[in-house]
Write a structure and sequence with these properties.
5-stranded parallel sheet, two-stranded antiparallel sheet, Rossmann fold
Length: 248
């Protein structure tokens, strides 16, 4: 079975990706962890036999801005990645997907017919939105990575529209995937982090033999998302809260 994660940013997907990867690699001989299909910071290379994925860890500037890629070029590259997955359809790859504003059903046909979709969600949507808001403002995807200035980020009309769009897209695409008859699971971040050791969360997928394939002393897991009080970083938090209560 091929697996992919479908989610909204700030859902804990990096953690789940790293939890599942060693198990899929060691038990099922998955070829590669391709990470985020839509993230142009990851380079996909076709060597004629398989797909390789690499990432510039020193890249602190969004890849799209750094390379000055046009929207058309990004869309073309994304569609090329769908073609590569189909080209090497006999091989098992693991990847993560986010909602797409230019969603093309035909590009997803291979995924829908061959992958088990994992819908990763958070019960605490307000915390997820605050995390997404701060990450989009600071380009720091872990709030503990640096000291943030107190109450300096304004929640704007543009932010409201952007967040409503991505949640609406996620809901629409999720319904499309389920109605297509594609196998799926719905997993919550809060359930994953409740396990000790956290790899025991693999049992949510019926991977009850995970201890046979994972060496806890050797595997790397990303640091958990910052858990501090994010409200203090929003200069107009009351406006954010009013908006949130009206829409979620």
């Amino acid at each position: 079975m091929k697996y992919c994660i479908f989610t909204i940013p700030r859902s804990g997907s990096a953690l789940l990706l790293h939890l599942m990867w060693p198990y899929l690699r060691n038990k099922f001989q998955y070829v590669e962890n391709l990470n985020e299909l839509q993230n142009m910071g990851y380079t996909w290379i076709d060597d004629g036999n398989r797909i390789h994925c690499s990432f510039d860890k020193n890249n602190t500037v969004p890849f799209k801005k750094k390379l000055q890629k046009t929207e058309k070029a990004i869309v073309n590259e994304r569609r090329n990645r769908y073609r590569l997955l189909k080209k090497y359809g006999e091989q098992d790859y693991f990847l993560k997907l986010f909602p797409e504003t230019d969603f093309q059903a035909e590009s997803w046909n291979f995924l829908l017919e061959n992958y088990h979709f994992i819908f990763l969600e958070r019960r605490n949507v307000k915390e997820q939105l605050l995390s997404l808001f701060l990450a989009s403002k600071t380009e720091v995807w872990n709030i503990d990575q640096k000291e943030l200035e107190y109450s300096t980020y304004e929640f704007t009309e543009k932010d409201k529209a952007s967040f409503l769009e991505i949640f609406s897209l996620y809901k629409t695409m999720k319904e499309f995937i389920i109605n297509n008859g594609t196998p799926y699971s719905i997993i919550y971040h809060e359930d994953i982090i409740s396990y000790d050791p956290i790899y025991k969360a693999l049992e949510l997928f019926d991977f009850t033999d995970w201890k046979d394939y994972i060496d806890l002393d050797k595997e790397y897991l990303p640091a958990p998302m910052g858990s501090g009080d994010k409200r203090k970083y929003v200069s107009n938090f009351e406006e954010f809260e009013t908006w949130f209560n009206e829409h979620f």
